[in-house]
Amino acid sequence: MSNGGGAASSTTHLLDFLEEPIPGVGTYDDFHTIDWVREKCKDRERHRKINSKKKESAWEFTKSLYDAWSGWLVVTLTGLASGALAGLIDIAADWMNDLKEGVCLSAMWFNHEQCCWTSNETTFAERDKCPQWKSWAELILGQAEGPGSYIMNYFMYIYWALSFAFLAVCLVKVFAPYACGSGIPEIKTILSGFIIRGYLGKWTLMIKTITLVLAVASGLSLGKEGPLVHVACCCGNIFSYLFPKYSKNEAKKREVLSAASAAGVSVAFGAPIGGVLFSLEEVSYYFPLKTLWRSFFAALVAAFVLRSINPFGNSRLVLFYVEYHTPWYLFELIPFILLGVFGGLWGAFFIRANIAWCRRRKSTRFGKYPLILHLNCIMPPRCLDLWLTSNRLSVNPAGLGVVSDYVYSVYVFSSLTVLSLFAGKYPVLEVILVAAITAVVAFPNPYTRQNTSELIKELFTDCGPLESSQLCKYRSQMNGSTAFTDNPNQPAGPGVYSAMWQLCLALIFKIIMTIFTFGLKVPSGLFIPSMAIGAIAGRIVGIAMEQLAYYHHDWFLFKEWCEVGADCITPGLYAMVGAAACLGGVTRMTVSLVVIVFELTGGLEYIVPLMAAVMTSKWVGDAFGREGIYEAHIRLNGYPFLDAKEEFTHTTLARDVMRPRSSDPPLAVLTQDDLTVEELQGIINETSYNGFPVIVSKESQRLVGFALRRDITIAIENARRKQEGIMFNSRVYFTQHAPTLPADSPRPLKLRSILDMSPFTVTDHTPMEIVVDIFRKLGLRQCLVTHNGNVLGIITKKNILEHLEELKQQTKPLSDGI
Amino acid sequence: MSNGGGAASSTTHLLDFLEEPIPGVGTYDDFHTIDWVREKCKDRERHRKINSKKKESAWEFTKSLYDAWSGWLVVTLTGLASGALAGLIDIAADWMNDLKEGVCLSAMWFNHEQCCWTSNETTFAERDKCPQWKSWAELILGQAEGPGSYIMNYFMYIYWALSFAFLAVCLVKVFAPYACGSGIPEIKTILSGFIIRGYLGKWTLMIKTITLVLAVASGLSLGKEGPLVHVACCCGNIFSYLFPKYSKNEAKKREVLSAASAAGVSVAFGAPIGGVLFSLEEVSYYFPLKTLWRSFFAALVAAFVLRSINPFGNSRLVLFYVEYHTPWYLFELIPFILLGVFGGLWGAFFIRANIAWCRRRKSTRFGKYPLILHLNCIMPPRCLDLWLTSNRLSVNPAGLGVVSDYVYSVYVFSSLTVLSLFAGKYPVLEVILVAAITAVVAFPNPYTRQNTSELIKELFTDCGPLESSQLCKYRSQMNGSTAFTDNPNQPAGPGVYSAMWQLCLALIFKIIMTIFTFGLKVPSGLFIPSMAIGAIAGRIVGIAMEQLAYYHHDWFLFKEWCEVGADCITPGLYAMVGAAACLGGVTRMTVSLVVIVFELTGGLEYIVPLMAAVMTSKWVGDAFGREGIYEAHIRLNGYPFLDAKEEFTHTTLARDVMRPRSSDPPLAVLTQDDLTVEELQGIINETSYNGFPVIVSKESQRLVGFALRRDITIAIENARRKQEGIMFNSRVYFTQHAPTLPADSPRPLKLRSILDMSPFTVTDHTPMEIVVDIFRKLGLRQCLVTHNGNVLGIITKKNILEHLEELKQQTKPLSDGI
């Protein structure tokens, strides 16, 4: 107890707080980590001020009420905006998606379905065909059937797909580079306490909303669900600027963002509870109970708004809502678990392949590919011929009109040339390329041509009398003839067989394209493609099981449960289980995923199959690497994210991690009362540390406090401008009282107000597992290491991440060997 | 850096770890707090050992696999057991509940419903009446109708109720005192890191299961939902003893208990997701994601088992599952919010009244009441007369048979005498009294006589053609006559009016009795009575709204939404909203409650009304006091529970809370190398601290580490027994190397292995809000306070709780004034 201390300094300490704060102290630079503890203290301080003032006047009381309710207000606004934007995106994407196929003559702004609603002439079976809706071939060539019109439709499909993709990537590149990707890895990082300015700003919001519609409509293998979370978080961030409580406090702002991400998932999947759990399980870092309630509220409001907008006209929040009516049987757990294994394998494969591709993209920047492609496409007929032969097998056998051939090749050539000239860099070209390949390959196969949501809906839905899908063309076995029936659990008809083939091709196509699509410079979600892949695989397994049960109904397994002709296997359920398994394999979510899917079906009944598949998928995936796709992308981008899920299992101690290492120069420390301004600036300029421990004296390294570099710089600047008599040789002191100085010395500079008097310390013997735990749970930025009360070193979040990476490298040969 | 330090000691430190551990070190006494950090470190150490061994042999590899899967195994077992026990309890309680009314002649073990299933003669309308089922009057007096048989039934009802209650309380008192109450406050405390040995043991499990059935069947105003959580936690605890990973680690064991409590709620309400959220929001303290997954799994398994048992014969998990088919309208939010206000008021009132009563019970122990009652009942006819006159108004007007009068009075007299003699203490008498009053008052009113779950079901269910309830006797308005119809949204018939009166009486009765029942020495849950109160209030409001809409269908509100004769108000929905609001007011749960009720209805549709009511109820309740009933009971019982929900808003610093206070004697510290065994024991005997800081020397108070009292005592004992040459004047040292001693001194005792080298420290200037945060998030037991590296004092969890209590007392006049 050498200096200060005792009860007396408590009041003086409080007086220090009341001193006018130095502007700028306590803010953060871009790409820096926030200090949760400090932010939370700041908020409580603010809260106390308001509370103490509120009895002064009615106005202050109103202000305090407003402050207390602002949390609910901001999540309500966020929910409203997210719901409205989601509705808008759904409607716009639907319309633009149908634009690829044709146009509604009676009203341009109707999509295919709405166009045909107004038509009275159609029967139920042909609800998709109506005179008002014209395909492009009908419109341009005047004929609906025949090879020419097929080519024309094909061409227009590619034309629109490329236009949308081009527009999307250009908008992203020019206006808001942060609008690309799914955004979830970055949001995870931001929520864990990192600052990325502009990532959740109004430009990002605007451009992401527009380009998301374009990207989805372009037919690329991507979904809108992940980006919707980003959009919702942008809304949350923008609205939080209306309330000083949230705009001025990075920790509080993150509470709003957690709620916003719940609202995003809520509207993406129509699953408010699933959204909250997603926010809790996957995204959030700091999740107090208050945030749980507000997340739930935001999710509900958003879902409610979306349902009022009713974008799909079925009073459901998502296109692929289903209800099943048949139970499942215990033996079906075997195929469900197999689907889980498939999901896990797919997830592990996808993560590796996608990360490898993204790493390649990062390093090579498509150095020489565009030129080759360009040269190749200078000879349009050859290039086109090449493409078409490779696709002709799956196309209706048809010749090519010379006109369309010419138009097509000119289009490809000119657009590519313009692109390379205009864009200058290659991300744009890459998007166009991927979009072109996707469009060219996707069109001939009905399962890849249609909207992915619609595909999922078709795969999830059970065959019934109202289904006109190819998947439901079963042979009737009543009369033994080849008449077709839509009753499942019958022998499969040729419709089902051809559908199976097309599904297999679609599966391969989706698997390949998704790997190259995720990470493009357009908004791109991963949920829908993953679910589509799983749903295709699941449906295939489901139909196989169904046929197995039909042809071998005397097997002991089927005998017990399946009567002949009875509805015992539900292929749609297999599709749903497969979808959950694949999504689980990629993201490694479990509970939130099961709840999301549960909310899609609304039946407790199917939770056990889902859970079995999702857990299997997680376990299988984890065997190949514990990271989900979002963590992998976070690591790829080098964000400072300390994963709360991964357990630290090594035996290192704090002193093995702390800086300075034994080979480094000694730790830069400040003494509490014998530095001059010049010396202090010297230390700051020589080092690049973000902060400095303040010690008693050179002789006794006992810790007094911690001062941040940014705060010191700002404080000195401020003192120079405002306080007279501060010179280079002014003494700087962090103590309560000014040190006794020689008579002729200049006025000293008191910096106690920027001194953190309660820095976190651990002893050098503290196991790193505890240190990591402290960093995770308290959200620290740095922590001092002491030995018997003396300062030895410092550990920052970055040091810990580096240490984890090192340990990972050391143990890699082992874990890869599994 | 005076001693040790440097890289060399790292290996020696590890060697210390490998020294044989002293048995008993690292365990806890009963009613002590665990150290989460230490427990987690222990578990990681164990994990590392297994991991390093697993490559040695196939056997070790199998062991490591078993270890990795034991977590899933134990939650599976817990889920299975909880589901099975819940099914058992449901079936047994149902049977015994019907025993109060009569008996099934064809098969004694059938309850009323099952008895009449086997009968073929009954029509649907009279499904409750069948020749096999005999009421007690029929059986004993041979007549089913008439005043005599009414009295006989009344008497037998009371007889069974008292017998069940008596048996229950005696079993609890004699075999397992911990089996009483709901158990949730204690489980919350245990999960926060407190040790109560035997609270979750096999005796408690057995007795709680049996007495829960008895208590529910006795007709007391209590539910089985809370105790089911206790039962599930007992299962979890018992199964965790099969796995050393969980039995030997208090922190890991609590993970299992969290999962078990989720399973408990899952079977209590048939709501697996709600159960997980309940565990997360209400019960758990430390809830890592792994626990989330396992909780979900346990909840699912339990629900699955219960559904396989199918105790209610409706393939649902709970009796009161409902489905609504009509939507709600925006203006209905007004009555829903009013129900929320009612729920909040009821909750606040209930908590105050119940706590006041429990405090009285604790302090007076029913000092003089039993004698007065006893004397009163010595004169049986008078006493009986008194009771009957007070109840006759609501009884069918009827005379009394002399025989039953006599039997009745003898019974009351003798049972009370036996009780007072046998029990000796008054809890038993209190239970009997409350049970007697409940039974006497409950019988005449059909809504209180029936099982509370059945009542809730009846109130939740909408009127339809299949409903035979009084509540659905509407007047048909088609022909204008007084013919009755079961179609709602009609003028209410006399059946509805009389039902309304009875419901009002039931409401008052339930409100009063629940206050006195919760806290009795029998297993007693609060969920069902609270829900019943809310459901009654809600149904009353619902019917009122319905009649309002009928008679004023030209009001602008109703005009827009309600057509005449259409189904626009659903009174059952009001009952459900009211139930959620009341339960929310009492427990202050929000999200988990909404999810539980959502799972009961299975419709996203009704989440907004529920949310509105539940949030209103929480806000209204919080205005009168922020504690829920469980926190209030925790505080009443003085458990060391640091609530994670309440925010610390004061400006005190660590030095204001730390011990020793300025008036106290200085802190008892140990020096690292100059104490003798005798001195050490002296310090231990003179003080009652649980642990002591170890410092460098008397001169320099710099902190080296922390040693626990229990560990020191055990270590000295152990050294005396095992190590030769340890005398009273042996030097004790905590350093790495033995100090240099005079030649003739006895062998020194090295205690470094029990020294915690990484104690948590905060500076004296640390705001208490940060300290509280650290304690909560890291689960600390104590924390040392330093100033400039010197030890100043210590803060324990108890100190913090005392400090919080002090602050509460100071601010009480203010907050009470709101």
Detailed description of the structure:
Two copies of one chain form a homodimer. Chain A contains 32 helices and 13 strands. With 818 residues, the first copy, chain A, is mainly alpha-helical. Chain A has four domains: 71-309, Clc chloride channel (Orthogonal Bundle); 330-364 and 444-637, Orthogonal Bundle (Clc chloride channel), CATH 1.10.3080.10; 366-424, no CATH class; 654-816, CBS-domain, CATH 3.10.580.20. In chain A, the strands form five sheets. A three-stranded mixed sheet of chain A has the order 5-7-8. A three-stranded mixed sheet of chain A has the order 6-9-10. In chain A, a hairpin with a 2-residue loop joins strand 12 (782-787) and strand 13. In chain A, helix 14 (333-364) runs parallel beside helix 21 (494-517), helix 16 packs across helix 17 and helix 25 (591-601) runs antiparallel to helix 26. The longest helix of chain A has 42 residues, at 58-99. Chain A starts with 7 loop residues before the first helix and ends with a helix. Mean pLDDT of chain A is 79; it is low at 1-18, 365-406, 418-424, 477-484 and 813-818. Chains A and B meet through helix 1, helix 2, helix 12, helix 13 and helix 25 of A and helix 1, helix 2, helix 12, helix 13 and helix 25 of B. Chains A, B: It is a multi-pass membrane protein.
List keywords for this structure.
homodimer, mainly alpha, Clc chloride channel, three-stranded mixed β-sheet, 59% helix, 6% strand, elongated, disordered N terminus
